[in-house]
Design a protein that fits this description.
Blueprint (H helix, E strand, L loop, with lengths): L1 H21 L2 H16 L10 E5 L2 H7 L6 H13 L4 E4 L11 H12 L10 H4 L1 H10 L3 E8 L18 E2 L5 H5 L7 E3 L3 H4 L4 E4 L12 E3 L1 E4 L2 E4 L1 H9 L6 E4 L5 E5 L2 E5 L4 E3 L10 E4 H5 L12 E5 L8 E2 L7 E2 H14 L9 H22 L2 H26 L6 H50 L3 E6 L4 E4 L27 H7 L10 E8 L3 E3 L2 E3 L2 E11 L9 E10 L1 H47 L7 H24 L8 E3 L1 H9 L2 H9 L3 E7 L6 E3 L1 H17 L5 E12 L3 E2 L3 E2 L2 E9 L7 H4 L20 H11 L3 E7 L3 E9 L22 E5 L3 H13 L3 E5 L2 H10 L4 E5 L8 H11 L5 E5 L5 H8 L5 E3 L4 H16 L2
Parallel strand pairs: 1-14, 1-15, 2-3, 2-15, 3-6, 4-10, 26-28, 34-35, 34-36, 36-37, 37-38
Antiparallel strand pairs: 3-5, 7-13, 8-9, 10-11, 11-12, 16-17, 18-19, 18-24, 20-23, 21-22, 23-24, 25-27, 28-31, 29-30, 31-33, 32-33
């Protein structure tokens, strides 16, 4: 667009400037009017007051008769002017014929025409010849006669004229012949009688020719006639007043000639013309009536030193000209204005070369205007263009006022107006074309965007909807097809028909939303009657999150402008299920933390019930009557310890998955165990059938915990069949290449499955999701009083990175399937029971524990096994002891509140004895700090409460390991 505007602007300006430089008459006339306006509105300088016009006006003619006056009366007028001290007197008159009123001329005419002889002998000679009387008067004063040049080929030659040419001195290497050839060349002349021209020393021509449009703007100062140059009346009068007989002509670089006459520098063009500033105060030039002068009505020095022009303003006799400043000026006024310009220095310089400068300025204005039009809006460029026009005209006037250089604002103004109109039309046309093309492109893009938007809407899984002001569906995205056959079925129906009855009140309050911004609806959770599939079943409703805001005609939300609602519906059914699972997991974690704390405290309390019976049984003889009682105490303590292990399992801290095991062997060992025998005797009406896969793969885990889980599953199944029945216990290998969505989601992979199916009373739908929560049970607590059975199963499976599927129908039975990840490692054989002699010793052992009873139990056990024992009640005490003593092994409690724990104590011990052997003891299961401690070099981990065998084997193993390095 910008380049186009500049190109068109340059072409248009070039056309206008070319026409301007050719300068045909029409453009010349308009240009003259423009310069007239600049001169007219320029502030005029103060008049010199040196020019006076003696006017042969209507008053004078009425008083002394019509023109021509007798020459003696004219002589009287001139004598009075001379007598009043005039410095120079110019006659705007041509005295070409003899005075017919002279007695002498009258005598000759009467005699010639009538045949009478008139006697005039009594009349004095100077009175009898008026022309001679006038000549004598002219000879006595500073008078300048006027004459007129003729330019027709057949014009009469001035053979009897006595003219007064100028003798110019050409300076600055001016070629006189070249410049003189440009001056106007007269062909003839109308001059004064030789009698008059011979007695004066100055005379000047009266020629003043208007331009082609009839307006007088310039007057020639020099005209060429018969090879010589002659001055105008005004120039001759000026030279007479300053007693100058010679002109100096200087050539200027601008193409002007400067005439220098008596200190006045007068610019003329190549034709000898001078442009007259008619607006320079011509109205204030003093006019004196010839009748008043003849009547002696003026003071004696009225014309002292002044230049006086004698002419007539009388109607029918005076020649008038139309000028730029006033409608008309008479002939004498024109010469008076020219003289005023010469005297006040109000020279007007208007060279032909100015056209070039105006053309260059026109190009500059065009370029700037083109930039503005290209960059600005129409109103802005119009204001700037208007300001530019005012600046151009004001600038031209200011330049003329200050320097006299008369530049025409026509071309720059025309360029600005023409270019503004043409370029604005072109810009508007181009903009309309561009807008049309843009609209076409926009339409294409809109259609493409609509297609893309539809594609995006189709790909968005969320449901996008729009309602009218009454809550009826006007649009719903294709995502709804997941729940219904066709979106069109819902168009026109109220959206509240889809809301579940329980959620209808809050939906009616917030869904048909009339608010926007921060007050709009976000994340409204409601149930919609859209069918969902879950666990192979179809549910009539699902959970959805709805965000909506009102639509308004205007920018300000108000009830009158409300036209509907739009929003997004997101299916969060699966998210709600995941949240429920997360809540369940968090609940399990919270209960686990509680169980872990309880287990730690119970371990310390149970230490005596488990450990002391071991020591007593070693000391009592085999036939002691209290041996059975001690054994009962031992078994009670072991049962309590088993409950603690259940709590640790619940806390998911009691399993360290580390060894390959085969579930078939664990199942077989349990079915052959005394515990199963006791349970079978209690549930004598229960039959257990097994279907164990012979090629069952191994898993990684803990035999003890897995056996406990299987025991709990079988016990729960038995207790669910009070009337008896059959329990099917089976195992198999399974592989899934896609995830299974069962009771919980089971990822793809290889699994070993253990299934326990009963024929019991089953579990209700309401209890199905809570069955694994701690202490949740619908059974009577007749035998298992912990209420942790199902929770231990859940925790054990999760500790082994496994999954559970639970299927139950009330009145028909329950089936629990446990999925464990497969390992390719081979199973190790269970080690044989270790004899007491294998873990005896004599080394020096330091026991560190913050519980006095734990220190006492550990000390007695180690002493019983032959070791030398030292004790410390805190980590700080142990560090102090080891600074001055050496021991073979440190039994270090992991958790010691109120001081350094086991990890910090071990780091301090290593600073003292870098190779110190340590085993770890704790009522908690292995934690991250235990692992860190073992990475630093610690040995076995022994869980409290101690048993003599487990504790002794751990101590002996660590001592032997260090010795075998």
């Amino acid at each position: 667009m910008t380049r186009t505007i500049h190109l068109y602007g340059f072409v248009l300006t070039l056309v206008v400037v070319t026409a301007y430089l050719i300068h045909p008459r029409s453009i010349r006339n308009i240009n003259n009017r423009a310069t007239d306006a600049v001169m007219t509105f320029s502030k005029a300088k103060t008049v010199s007051g040196s020019v006076v016009i003696v006017d042969l006006d209507e008053k004078s003619l009425a008083q002394y008769g019509q023109w021509p006056w007798p020459r003696y009366r004219l002589a009287q007028l001139l004598s009075k002017i001379n007598g009043l001290g005039a410095g120079s007197v110019g006659l705007d008159l041509i005295l070409a014929e003899p005075d017919r009123t002279s007695p002498k001329n009258w005598q000759a005419a009467v005699g010639r025409e009538l045949g009478y002889q008139v006697d005039i002998s009594g009349i004095p000679e100077q009175v009898a010849d008026h022309d001679r009387f006038l000549a004598e008067t002219l000879a006595k004063g500073p008078f300048v006669l006027g004459y007129e040049f003729l330019f027709k080929e057949d014009a009469p030659k001035g053979l009897s004229c006595s003219l007064h040419p100028v003798n110019p001195v050409w300076v600055n290497s001016v070629e006189a012949s070249q410049w003189q050839s440009g001056f106007f060349k007269a062909q003839g002349i109308v001059c004064n009688q030789k009698l008059f021209s011979d007695v004066v020393t100055f005379s000047g021509f009266l020629n003043a020719t208007p331009d082609s449009d009839g307006i007088l703007r310039r007057i020639p100062l020099l005209i060429r006639y018969e090879g010589r140059l002659y001055p105008s009346l005004a120039l001759a009068t000026l030279m007479q007043s300053r007693n100058v007989s010679q002109l100096h002509v200087l050539q200027k670089e601008s193409g002007f000639l400067n005439l220098v006459a008596g200190g006045a520098v007068i610019p003329i063009d190549r034709h000898g013309n001078m442009v007259v500033n008619f607006g320079s105060g011509g109205e204030t030039i003093r006019h004196v009536s010839a009748g008043d002068l003849l009547g002696n009505a003026l003071p004696a020095d009225s014309f002292k030193g002044k230049i006086v022009l004698v002419g007539s303003s009388a109607a029918g006799w005076a020649q008038v000209y139309q000028t730029p400043a006033r409608p008309v000026h008479n002939h004498v006024d024109v010469h008076a204005m020219l003289l005023e310009n010469l005297l006040t220095g109000q020279m007007v310089i208007r060279s032909q070369e100015f056209l070039i400068w105006e053309a260059l300025f026109g190009f500059l204005a065009s370029a700037l205007l083109a930039v503005c039009i290209a960059k600005m809006e129409i109103l802005g460029s119009a204001l700037l263009g208007t300001a530019s026009l005012l600046a151009i005209w004001s600038g031209a006037g200011l330049i003329f006022q200050r320097t006299g250089l008369l530049f025409s604002p026509l071309l720059p103004s025309t360029v600005i107006l023409f270019n503004y109109a043409a370029l604005t039309i072109i810009k508007t046309w181009k903009s309309q074309r561009a807008a049309k093309a843009t609209a076409d492109d926009t339409l294409v893009l809109l259609k493409a965007s609509e297609h893309n938007l539809n594609s995006i809407i189709k790909s968005v899984p969320d449901i996008i909807f729009r309602l009218d002001a009454t809550g009826r569906i006007t649009f719903i995205s294709p995502a709804i097809t997941k729940y219904t056959d066709s979106p069109e079925q819902l168009i026109g129906h109220p959206i509240f028909d889809l809301v579940a009855p329980d959620d209808l009140p809050k939906a009616q309050y917030r869904l048909n939303e009339k608010r926007t911004g921060e007050r709009a609806t976000y994340g409204l959770e409601i149930r919609l009657l859209l069918p969902h599939k879950h666990d192979g079943n179809v549910e009539e409703a699902g959970y959805f999150s709805v965000s909506a805001e009102g639509i308004y005609r205007g920018e300000t939300p108000c009830s009158k402008e409300f036209i509907g609602t739009q929003g997004i519906i997101r299916d969060i059914t699966e998210q709600k299920r995941l949240e429920e699972r997360l809540l369940h997991a968090q609940k399990m974690e919270a209960v686990g933390k509680l169980a872990a704390g309880v287990a730690h405290d119970l371990n310390n309390i149970l230490a005596g019930l488990v450990t002391y019976p071991d020591l007593l049984l070693l000391e009592l003889p085999g036939d002691s009557p209290i041996r059975d009682k001690v054994a009962i105490i031992q078994r009670s303590g072991q049962k309590a310890a088993a409950i603690v292990q259940d709590l640790l399992t619940l806390a998911r801290r009691g399993v360290k998955v580390s060894e390959p095991v085969n579930l078939n062997r664990i199942i077989s060992d349990y079915l052959a165990s005394p515990e199963f025998g006791v349970a079978s005797r209690y549930h004598s009406n229960i039959t257990i059938e097994t279907d164990l896969a012979p090629d069952l793969m191994n898993i990684k885990g803990s035999r003890v915990h897995l056996s406990k889980a299987i025991m709990n599953v079988l016990n729960n199944a038995a207790e669910a069949m009070p009337a008896g029945g059959t329990i099917l216990l089976s195992s198999c290998n399974r592989y899934f290449d896609v995830p299974l969505h069962l009771y919980e989601e089971i990822p793809a992979g290889e699994y070993v499955c253990v299934s326990v199916a009963d024929e019991g009373v089953g579990i209700s739908d309401g209890d199905l999701k809570k069955i694994f929560e701690p202490f949740y049970s619908k059974k009577s607590m007749r035998r298992s009083g912990s209420g942790l059975g199902m929770t231990v199963i859940w925790a054990t499976v999760k500790d082994h990175d496994g999954y559970i599927d639970l299927q139950s129908i009330e009145g028909e039975g329950t089936r629990i399937v446990m999925y464990f990840p497969v390992t390719r490692d081979r199973e190790e054989l269970i080690p044989h029971r270790i004899a007491l002699e294998e873990y005896l010793g004599t080394e020096h052992v330091l026991v560190v524990d913050d519980m006095p009873e734990q220190i006492e139990i550990a000390s007695k056990m180690l002493s019983k096994l032959g070791y030398r024992v030292a004790t410390a009640a805190s980590g700080e005490e142990a560090v102090v002891y080891l600074r001055s003593n050496k021991v073979d092994l440190v039994v270090l409690d992991m958790i010691m509140p109120g001081g350094m724990d086991g990890l910090e104590t071990y780091k301090r011990i290593k600073e003292i004895h870098p190779g110190q052997r340590v085993i770890i003891a704790s009522g908690f299961s292995e934690s991250e700090r235990v692992v860190m401690l073992q990475k630093l070099g610690a040995g076995e981990y022994v869980q409290k409460p101690y048993t003599l065998e487990r504790f002794g084997v751990a101590v002996r193993k660590e001592l032997d390991r260090m010795e075998n390095r």
